[in-house]
Amino acid sequence: MTNKTLIPLILGYALYIGDAEAGTRARVPKKKYVTYPSGLKLEVVTNPNDKDCPQKYFRDPNNSGNKLVRVRPSDLDKKVSPHFDVGEFALIHHQEDVPEKYKQRIGEEDYFRCIRSRSCKVP
Predict the structure, then answer these.
(1) Fewer CB within 10 Å: C terminus or N terminus of the chain?
(2) Within the chain, where are the H helices?
(3) Contact present, 106 and 112 (Cβ < 8 Å)
(4) pTM for the predicted model, two decimal places
């Protein structure tokens, strides 16, 4: 292959395929995670324009520095600490305040697709 090509991936990143004859390598962004005291790892949303978790909607008004993490349905019942699970943090209490595109319905409850969260050590 002598021409340069961009291939869109499912995660919204573009994979650059270089010139194979020149020996260049394709680069795929490495995912980042927040690890909780329970050992659970949640993916950090690094794309500010992510379709499910745009930074402008899930902003950090107090500049806490807490990472925006993606919440998948399979994560909701997983523990972040001995006393709390992801679903308790992601549960939406005021439905009218949240646009539908940022919600995920599981059973009878609505949950955020992303939450601002940080890992902390329990003493």
Answers:
(1) C
(2) 86-90
(3) no
(4) 0.66
Does residue 58 fall inside a structural domain? Answer: yes
Residues 1 and 37 in one domain: no
Whether 21 and 40 share a structural domain: no
- Residue 123 counted as domain residue: no
Are 50 and 5 contained in the same domain? no
CA torsion, points 93, 94, 98, 101, in degrees to nearest 10?
Answer: 50
Q: Domain of 70?
A: 33-117
Task: Name the residue with tokens 């050992």.
Answer: 39
Q: Which residue has the tokens 């499912």?
A: 10
Burial class of residue 7 in the structure, from the number of CB atoms within 10 Å of its CB (0-12 exposed, 13-18 middle, 19+ buried): exposed
Long-range CB pairs of 119-122, under 8 A, 24+ apart, other chains included? 119/34, 119/35, 119/36, 119/37, 120/37, 121/37, 122/37, 122/81, 122/82
